[in-house]
Structure formats: C-alpha cells, structure tokens
Amino acid sequence: MATPNEPPRLPKFFEGSLPQEHSTKWAKCWEDKWTPWDRGGPSMALHDLLKENPNGVIPLPSETSPKTCLVPGCGRGYDVVLLSLFGYDVYGLDVSSQALSAAKENAEKALTEGLYETEGGKRGAINWTCQDFFAEDWKDVQGTFDLIFDYTFFCALPPPLRPAWAKKMKTLLSPGGRLVCLEFPSDKKPSEPGPPWAAPPGEYLAYLSNPGAQPRTDEYGGVIAEEMESLAPGGLKRLVHIKPGRTHASGMQDGRVQDYISVWAHANE
User: Fold this and answer.
1) Residue 212 phi/psi, 5° resolution?
2) What is the mean pLDDT of residues 63-74?
3) Would you say 48 and 244 are in contact if contact means Cβ atoms under 8 Å apart?
4) Coiled coil located at which positions (predicted)?
5) For residue 79, what are the contacts with CB-CB under 8 A and spacing of at least 6?
6) What is the mean pLDDT of residues 35-59?
7) Partners of 81 in the beta sheet?
8) Angle at which helices 44-52 and 78-85 pack, to 10 degrees?
9) What average pLDDT does the segment 184-188 reach?
C-alpha cells in the first residue's frame, strides 16, 4: 500500500482527466521527478530487430542513403541514442521540456562513456523537439520519417485518441518508410484502467489498418475483434508480427515474453 508521501499510481493520477488534459499531466510527472514508467535503458527488442532485420524489412541507413527517424514520447531518450548508433538521424519528441533536459544529459553520458556500441558505419545526428505530437504544425521539424518507433506511447494515450494517433503516424511516415511498434501491454484487459491502457495486437491492427477511423469498441474502449474492418486503401499494412527474443522485464510474465513487435508500411507499397 502506498504511504502518504508516495505519489499515486499512474491510473489513479490520471483518473477523471479529459484526453486533452493528459499532456499536462505527463509534464507534471516530469516536473515532480516521478517517472515510474522509465525503462532505464534502450529497447532490447528494437536493437535485435534492427540487428537481425528479417528479410531486409527495415530501411537501414548507409553513407549513400541517409535515413531519418522519429521517437514520439521519447522520455529520457534511450531509444533515440540507440537508433542514432544504427546511423539514423533521429528526432526525439516529448511534450515535457524536463524530459528532454533529462534526455540530453542521458545521451551525453551514454555517448561520452561509450555505453552502447555503434552499429552503423557512423553515428547519426540527434535532435530534440518539445511539442505536442498531435499539433497540426510542428516547429523546427519538417517532412516525413523513414522510421518511426512507438514504445509506451500508444499505450500512454487514452483510447479516444487512438484514431488521431494512427492518422498522424500515417501522415508522418515517408513513402517506403516503416513504423515499428513494440506492443505493450499486450496481456492487459481493456476493463483495467490506464495508463498504460491495454494494447493487444488487435488494437494496433484495427487503428492502423484504417487511420483516423473509429472501429467498433466495447464499453471499455477495447476493439471488438469480430467487427474489425479490413485494410483500407489508405491504411498501413502489417509486414512483421513476432514476439521478440528479449524485452524489458515489464513485458515478461513468468519468464515468458508477452510483448509483440510489429512493422508497418503504407498499404500501397
């Protein structure tokens, strides 16, 4: 049981907040230096996916073909650093300026002390941008991205924002680009409060297959699988859907991986 001086659990802290108020609540967590979701390091599942690159599904950067990448809700920027070491020019986006200050410190420490190995031919550039993911126009960021990585961002959004999330992802993804989602928590029930909200594979499939549309949901906001629509011409198609060999402890249960990792592309490719 929490002590009187202990911050409330995330679901309790967000209870009763309107979707449009959540950005302010996340920023408040950073102001209070309360980040119980922090993973403490980069995603092992993402590292392994890029390293193994099954069937060459991921467009990796090279000296003659640079690639850009976006990590929305980047927090302390662990995955931003990891992706830069694979050669991507990465943008870490967060709504909290305190989060990005922590990310800059973390990145400087990681790169100065050589905490991670450079996987690509050379390290890509790192950029930080403080703004709302859903804003119509972003300052200091233009164009689309060759790779987008979503981990604990989709599940941090209340279900009413998921159609807008999918539409924005489609808009931000370059032709030939890939959206990589580390699906968490895949085993949580929609009836359980969030954040994190339940994020089983069917949720990603329903929203990304028809970006911007609202699929039929139950009383808790969970997608009704039997009534899911097929892939729309303007949607994103799933190219890869696997359980990673390694993931964070929060995505494990009784020693077994519960997370999934999925790779998405524009339906017309």
Assistant:
1) 95, -20
2) 96
3) yes
4) none
5) 42, 43, 46, 71, 149, 151
6) 95
7) none
8) 20
9) 95
Dist. CA 67–CA 74, nearest whole Å: 18
Alpha helices (runs of H) in the chain, residue ranges in sequence order: 10-14, 22-31, 44-52, 78-85, 97-112, 162-172, 201-209
- Determine the residue type at 81: V
CB 184 within 8 A of CB 153: no
Q: Look at strands 126-130 and 89-94 and give their pairing.
A: parallel
What is the DSSP annotation of 174-188? EEEEEEEEEE--TT-
CB 155 within 8 A of CB 195: yes
Other Cβ atoms closer than 10 A to 135? 10
Dist CA 266 CA 269 (whole Å): 6
The pLDDT value recorded for residue 122 is 86
38 to 73, 74, 76, 132, 151: CA distances (angstroms): 11, 10, 8, 20, 11
SS3 56: helix
Average pLDDT for the chain: 93
Check if the beta carbon of residue 62 is closer than 8 Å to that of residue 87.
yes
- Rounded Cα distance between 266 and 146, Å, is 12
Q: What is d(CA 168, CA 70) in angstroms, rounded to the nearest whole number? A: 12
Helix, strand, or coil (residue 47): helix
SS3 165: helix
CATH superfamily membership of 66-266: Vaccinia Virus protein VP39 (3.40.50.150)
What mean pLDDT is predicted for residues 241-259? 95
Token output for 129: 């941008």
- The whole-number average pLDDT for the span 22-39 is 94
**pTM score, whole prediction:** 0.94
